[in-house]
Design a protein that fits this description.
319 residues; alpha/beta; TIM Barrel; 8-stranded parallel barrel; 10 helices; 42% helix
Amino acid sequence: MIHLNRREFLKTTGIAAAALCATRFAGAAEFKTKLHRAMIIGEPTEKSLQPLKDAGFDGVESNAIIDPEKAAECRKIAEKMGMRIHSVLRGWAEFNSEDPAKVSSSLTTTEKALRAAKGYGADAVLLVPCRIGGMPMPDPWDFKIEFDEKTGHVVKVCDGDNSKFAKYIEAQNRATDTSREAVKKLIPVAEETKVIIALENVWNNLWVQPAIYRNFVASFQSEWIRSYFDIGNHMKYRPSQEWIRTLGPLIAKCHVKDFKLNPDGHGGKFVHPRDGDVNWPEVRRALDETGYNGWLTIEDGGLPLPEFRARLDKIIAGE
């Protein structure tokens, strides 16, 4: 048995503790990119921001599309508190509608969101261009899409006979064309406001595999059109890290939630971050590989803010 005096004991345990800490945080030290913590809120006020500030969040994403002047006042409040309103959640548009009035309304709302974002000091607006549905389509795990890289038009959506999915293919190709036409009209406003239009496909049955989603976003050939990637939304189609590596520098922002697959790996349900099947260490490595320095915004509720913050810290650390 080895006997140590008090000084030797403290020295030995101190070295051991330092070694344990070094091992514990080795994953965090190796990352080159910096990630920031955020939650989604309504109109940013001191009252709505203070709990997030107290919980250690860096900023917020607002779903309040308000006048630019009022947004600028919100910005002053946030900055005074040492926080940032980093993006605006504009959400669903109807760019594939056959009603011209709905298309026009979607364009107007998106333009308002871009101008609100400028007032907030945000650098991106989340936009879902449109959705389709009501016709036969493959199950998420059966998708094997083939498409024309020049037009983005789908040729096949799965192996074997695709005739029963003809209406789905037609609807997707029309949605691609109409969404591209509409978003192009918004690029001048994005350039003027210096706010990115970040396109998201949120279970809208469009661009459901990494390659075709990347093709659609990249087709604009504009620095003002990029992707808003939701880490949990895409799990039922492909692992999240595959999407991230395919999209690469096209990713402007990331939403954080998790998805628990069924035992057979087919389908599942949304759960709190780190309670599902997202491979968070691999996601963190993929974000680092692609050079993503940006925001992780939790799109979830039901847990105390300090718990959400703690889970984000683990994700950022690569755990």
